[in-house]
Amino acid sequence: MENLKHAKTLKHVNRTLHILLCFFIITSCGFIGSADIPEEVIDVPVITKPDTTVETDSAGTGAAADTSPAQETNQNTEEETFHNTYTVTIDVDPVTRNISGITKVKYKNKTGAEMSAVYFNLNLNAFRPGVTPKPFFVQSQDKVFENGTDYGGMDIITATVNGAAAEFEAIDTTLKLNMPTALLPNEETEIVLQFEAYIPKISHRAGANDFAIWFGNFLPTLSVYDEFGWHTTSYYPAGDPFYTEIANYAVTINTPPNYTVAATGVEEVTETETVKTTKLNARLVRDFAFAISDKYIKTTVTAASGVEVNLYTYSPDVDTARILDTASRSLDYFSSLISNYPYRQLDIAETGMFISGGMEYPQLIFMDSGYLYTDASLETITHETVHQWFYNIVGNNQVKEAWLDEGLCAMVQESFKYSNDEIENRMAQEYERLKAVLPDIENKGLLSDLSVYGTWSDYYNIQYRRGKLMFYSLSKKMGGEKFNDFLKTYYTKYAYKISGRKEVIATAEEVYGEPLTDFFDGWMQNFELPPL
Predict the structure, then answer these.
(1) The domain 1-35+80-294 belongs to what CATH superfamily?
(2) Are 177 and 159 in contact (CB under 8 A)?
(3) Residues of the chain with pLDDT under 70
């Protein structure tokens, strides 16, 4: 293959034959959905309101009481809502870092119109030479390629729709798949993609080092179709350039026996002399990510809320107790503040990813090795934990409205660690820092999408810092009790859905009881900062 490294050895051919056998099985036997997964490993999220309250002041901060165990039930939480379902088989060769896979998607046309083509995200192809924009800034290139230049990517080998061969075209990070027959509104179909991929030895959301391989934003996922059409977004270097819908995942990962998998979902592991098979089931999540290593050491604690928190590390002398304590306490705190964490597990996996020190995925956090030894790791873990509620469960277009999850999470996490007086002082300092640099950010505001940012600093100052200050100012305007009601109401209304600024404003006005147009316009429409 043009962009895959290493010749096709006999071992690689055998792996390909194995995948083709899987392809035959799943296409002959019909769609394998969550009903075929053993009952004991099904993770069924439910929307519940907190069982305890949080004492707050006018800033909306305060200490949370202990929460009850995360509720799990076999009740149908999807009601009549259809969610795409991905059934995936992946073979990983850790030595060559070549991957072969089959992904089968149960898809329903909810666009309201006949669909002649659908689109998938192939995010790994951003790491091929010549693709623009690059998924990193020039000034970060040495950090990304700290082990030398190495490129990766994914090739789609075959595609079928309801068993019929389908034409497709992959351009950079977008796959266009033509329907053999136009898909009618509300019609369901089964799409099967066979793929091969190569994970480069780089420090990014997907990458590898001498200790582990990690797969962030790796799987082919359906693009979002909304009132603006299909969103086929580039992998911009700033922010998290991803926009996905809630889906169900049943993923089988085959590795050598000595490898451990940390992943989204609840795992079931079987092993032979030659292969370890890890089956993951994740219901109602916004993406699926995983990491593997033959050096991972797993440490586990159970949070007061009953959630299992797992830390996977390969570096020596990591203060695992401190990290797990922060993760479990923040999980319990946000369960009380917003709503119960609706999954059984939260995993934290050590990687070599330099971006921001950490990256959130559903039920999974990637942490860069260097951050594990610093106090910054605790801030990062807390921030990525809040993202389980805002990004994963309540989704948004992270390309167009990054502030919606990043700014909100940055503001909400403050009350986990700091007192009310400390928060007020911190926000005043943040306000002055932003005010000082704002003239140099060239009129970029909260409504700027990721394509306009030339540095991480500019992106951070607007989408994180200005977004955080806006939500803090909102909490002061509404008062602590009403702001916490806003958090709970907003979560409950849009859990497992996609929200935008209209929904945020409408929910805030509903809870506050008065119009807030002028308030939000001041922060969003104007370049100058409104008073804090």
Answers:
(1) tricorn interacting facor f3 domain (2.60.40.1730)
(2) yes
(3) 1-80
